[in-house]
Amino acid sequence: MTEQTDRKIIFITELIDQRLRKEKEIEYYEEQLKIIQSKLQTLQTERRLTETILDIIRNEEEKLNLPDVDKRWLGKGI
After folding, report:
1. Are 19 and 36 in contact (CB under 8 A)?
2. Percent of the chain with pLDDT over 90
3. Which CA distances in Å does 70 have to 32, 54, 77?
4. Do residues 69 and 61 touch, judged by C-beta distance below 8 A?
5. Domains of the chain by residue range
6. Full-prediction pTM beyond 0.85?
7. For a FRET experiment, which of 27, 51, 54, 75 has its CA 20 to 30 Å from that of 9?
8. 27-43: string of b/e by CB count within 10 Å (b at 16+)?
9. d(CA 57, CA 75)
10. DSSP structure class, residue 69
């Protein structure tokens, strides 16, 4: 083999190695994205539930007759 052929072989193997590293990196980040999306969905569901509970409390505040309720939690006051 000539020196030029050796360089071409080395260059091609480096490109192949680089491609494999990039593919593994993409797989890693795709998996991380799935985890983050799942956590985000859970948090959004929990937030909606909390908002629903707060709405119920706001709507029923007078009926409950709880003068000691901290109005900040109901979105009123401070």
Report:
1. no
2. 54
3. 40, 12, 9
4. yes
5. 3-62
6. no
7. 27
8. eeeeeeeeeeeeeeeee
9. 11
10. S
53 contacts 74 by C-beta, under 8 angstroms: no
pLDDT of 29 reads 98
Q: What is the pLDDT of residue 37?
A: 98
Three-state secondary structure string covering 31-63:
HHHHHHHHHHHHHHHHHHHHHHHHHHHHHHHHH
Read off the tokens for 1. Answer: 């083999």
Helix (H) and strand (E) counts in the chain: 1, 0
Do the beta carbons of residue 58 and residue 77 sit within 8 Å? no
